[in-house]
Amino acid sequence: MLHTALLAAALASFASAHTAAWANGMYCRNGNSTDPSHSEPNTNLAVSPLYNLTKEDWWFQHDRGCDLAPPPTGEFLQLPANGNFTVELAHNRAFTTLSYDGKLTTAWPDGVQHPEDWNSWHGEGSECLEDGALHAFNQSHAAGTAWAISYQSDIKKVNMENLVVFSVLQHTPWKRLATYQVPNLPKCPEGGCTCAWLWVPDKCGQSNMYMQPYKCTVTSATSSVPVAKAQPPVYCADDKSKCVKGAKQMIVYSQLTDNNIDVTRPATPGYNEKCGWIAGPQRDIFAL
Ligand SMILES: *[C@@H]1O[C@H](CO)[C@@H](O)[C@H](O)[C@H]1NC(C)=O
Ligand SMILES: *[C@@H]1O[C@H](CO)[C@@H](O)[C@H](O)[C@H]1NC(C)=O
Ligand SMILES: *[C@@H]1O[C@H](CO)[C@@H](O)[C@H](O)[C@H]1NC(C)=O
Ligand SMILES: *[C@@H]1O[C@H](CO)[C@@H](O)[C@H](O)[C@H]1NC(C)=O
C-alpha cells in the first residue's frame, strides 16, 4: 500500500540529496547497516557528494561508512563483456525499482515528471535546473558519468593504479535508466571484482565528485588480456595533445588530499572529452 506520507518522506529527504547509481552489487543499499535484516527502502546515504575530504574519507565513501556495508554474499553488478548493463540513477532508493516495488519511479531520478527538453539555459546568468541534484542546465550540459573496475575482490586491495575507468555515458546523469557499454573485459577472480560509479558535475553547485563502491563481475568473458595500469587523467580541453591515452584513473577533484588533476574554475574536469575520455566503452585500456 502506497501512502502519501511515504512519498512526502521520500521527497523531503530528496530535497538535500544528489545522485547515485542503484543496482545489485552496490554497497550501502540498506543505508550503511551491515545487518542484512535491516533494509532501509528510503535511503539516500549513497548519494551525497564527496567534498574537501581526506583520501581516507573520500575513498569509496568511507566518510559515511559505505565501504564497510557490502552487498549480500554472491550479489554482484553483472558486466557482460562487449555488452551493456543498465543501472538506475536516482536521488533516493525510494525512486528506484529497489524499493516499494518501483511504485515511486518515473523516467526521472527524482520520482516526478519533467519535459523531455527540460532546460533552464537562456544565456549567461541562467540558474541551473531546479533539480540541483542533476547539477546541470539541460541534458547536453550534463557532464557524464562513468564506471571503473579493479580486478581485486577485496576492496582494501583496490588502489588508484588498479582501478581503471572502463565506460563513460555522456550527458548523464539525466534519466533514471542509464545503460553503459562494456569493452572486452577479461573475467574477474573467484570473489569477483570491485567497481566504482563515478561522476564530476560541471559546476551548478559546489565543486565535488562521486565515487560509489560496488561488487561487480564480468560475464561472457572470452578475453584474457588484462587491463593496464591506470594513469592519472589530464585536463586537455585546451590542447588535445595533452590528453592521456589508454587506461586512466578516476578523477580526484575538490578534495582535501590526493587530488590527481590540476584544474581551476571556471574550467571543470569531467568524464568526457575534456579529460580525454571518448563516450562509450573504453577499448584502449588493455595491456597489449
Ligand atoms: C552508519 O553506521 C553507524 C554504525 O555502524 C552509525 O553510528 C552511523 O550513524 C551511520 N551513519 C549514517 C549516516 O547513517
Ligand atoms: C576543507 O577542510 C579543512 C579541514 O577540515 C578546512 O580547514 C578548510 O577550511 C576546508 N576548506 C574548504 C574550502 O571548505
Ligand atoms: C548496447 O548499447 C548500444 C548503444 O545504445 C547499442 O548500439 C548496442 O546495440 C547495445 N548492445 C547490446 C549488446 O545490447
Ligand atoms: C544547455 O546548456 C548549455 C550551458 O552549459 C548551453 O550552452 C546550451 O546551449 C544549452 N542547450 C540548450 C538546448 O539550450
Automatic annotation (TrEMBL):
Question: Where does this polypeptide localize?
Answer: Secreted
Q: Where is the signal peptide?
A: 1-17
Q: What's in the keyword line of the UniProt record? A: Copper, Disulfide bond, Glycoprotein, Metal-binding, Monooxygenase, Oxidoreductase, Secreted, Signal
The protein's predominant localisation is secreted
Cofactor(s) needed for function: Cu(2+)
Q: Which Pfam families match?
A: LPMO_AA14
The keyword Disulfide bond belongs to this UniProt entry's keyword annotation: yes
An example Gene Ontology molecular-function term: monooxygenase activity
Q: Which family does it belong to?
A: Belongs to the polysaccharide monooxygenase AA14 family.
Its recorded name reads: Proteophosphoglycan ppg4
Annotated organism of origin: Massarina eburnea CBS 473.64
